[in-house]
Amino acid sequence: MRNGIKIIVIAFLLSTLMVSCIYDEFPNHRQCDISLRLVNSRGAVLSDSVAHLYNIDWFVNGIYKRTVAAEKDGKYRVTFNSTDRVTLVAVAASDTSECHENTPILDESIKDTWLQLKTGGENTSPQPHAIYYGDLDVTPDENVSDDDPAKSYTILMKDMRAKVRVEIKGLKTRFGDGDYRIVLEGLRSGIAYDGSVTGVLVNYDMKGSFDSQGNYTTLPDEVLPTKSGERVSIKVYKQDGSLLFDRDVDEQGNPLEVKKNDDIVFVINASYLTDLTVTIVPWADIENPTSFQ
């Protein structure tokens, strides 16, 4: 009986010591309950079944510290020093076969590549299904008490992709009938832990055809946004391989860029005998949307 009492007392003392050690690591600790929500471009909540949710990755002052898995109730629970700048990031992919997730290592930078799309030959990217990303920045707070209740946060995860098309007005009149090739260059195929665009450069070989007015229109391509400081280049080739058009700025001299959640058309004007020009037009503003799909 005495041995049993001794074991119970020792176990109690050990558990108290372990709790003390945990709080020693976080002297001004903050507790958080994190929930993830997939949302569309209008903010409406989507079912979790539309994408595979990876674990939350935890960065302190921009450096990777650990990965947090969901508990039985679907929430992610974290405890950290309230004087640190903490960033929690999450990503989800609708089709995991289209991408590769890099497992972070201790002390890795938040700027490093996290999710990389699998590319085809000649770095031609596939048409990725939805890729959702979300993050949460928790700022330092020296006034947090160990007795404060846990705070609840929700990370809203939005699709990173954009949709692009190309329309070339007057192409048949100026250059004749035949097959043409439209290529977008300068886009990337990866997402960093901080949500910025990274990864290898990829090309998009866009498929299209002539409409009844002799304008050449392409099908939409799903792409990742332009990396900060970079630009898109549009190239138009005729069937014999001759380059007809190569431009990375619009008619005002501004770099051609694709932003997250864009739904745009690169409109190239070949109707005049002057140099071809390109403008960026929102899909909703196109006068004849029936020529697109």
List the helices and strands and how they pair.
Layout: H1 2-25, E1 29-39, E2 52-53, E3 56-60, E4 63-68, E5 76-81, E6 86-93, E7 99-101, E8 113-117, E9 131-138, E10 151-159, E11 162-169, H2 171-175, E12 180-192, E13 197-206, E14 208-210, E15 216-218, E16 221-223, E17 233-238, E18 243-247, E19 263-269, E20 277-282
Parallel strand pairs: 1-10, 11-19
Antiparallel strand pairs: 1-5, 2-6, 3-4, 3-6, 6-9, 7-8, 8-12, 9-10, 11-15, 11-16, 12-13, 12-17, 14-15, 17-18, 19-20
Shape: elongated
Largest sheet: 8 strands, mixed
- Poorly predicted runs are 2-26
Element-level helix/strand string: HEEEEEEEEEEEHEEEEEEEEE
Give the averaged pLDDT, no decimals: 84
The proportion of residues in beta strands is: 35-45%
What integer value in Å does the Rg equal? 26 Å
Number of E-state strands? 20
Q: Considering DSSP H and I runs of 4 or more, what fraction of the residues is helical?
A: under 10%
| Count of DSSP-assigned helices | 2
